[in-house]
User: Fold this.
Amino acid sequence: MEDYHRICEAIGPGDYSLAHYFSGNHIIVRHDVDDKVNLAIEIADIEHSQGIRSTYYFRYRGDDSERNALLSIRSMGHEIGFHYETLAKAGGDKEWAVRLFKDQLAALREIADIKTVCPHGSRGYRNHKIMSEYLQRECALIGDAYLDVDFGNLDYYSDSGNQWHVYQKLSDHLDNPDKKLDRVAVELLDVIKAIESGDNVYIATHPQHWTQNVK
Ligand SMILES: [Zn+2]
Assistant:
């Protein structure tokens, strides 16, 4: 968590949520709450104490620990989003996946105002394949944290695999998913340098990795 403090210090106070990005901001901070919701609360708390607002994407699990974490993070003023994985849950059946998406979104909206969504990386399924402008309009969403971001205009840093990486040409990969994902391992200091030099950055974390500091 010490490392995360350093990132927050470099970024400084502000609203870096996806909802704010879609209204014209250029720095994004996003957290995928895949697992270990308590670690997400810790990160939310660190940000909150430094005047930072970001987005937390919750999978719909429908249990108490998820609900409590969501309420706690919401109460700190962070944006809550939906980390959808319904194509995987529906075993690849698109129509079923869209129905499930709407049901789960509605259930989450009973506890938080949700404006943005982000696909979870499920093994064997590309969950974002169900997303469309039509579905977003129908569900009154303002954007998808993966599909609607202009990756040509910012550097995407992620802590996936317990190591910081910068992803290059992610927009090419989105246009052509068969193209190999081009990612380069970097140090925490490189992430901080990029932030401090005023680059447009997109930082994506998975709080479950933060039991130990990410290398
Ligand atoms: Zn995920």
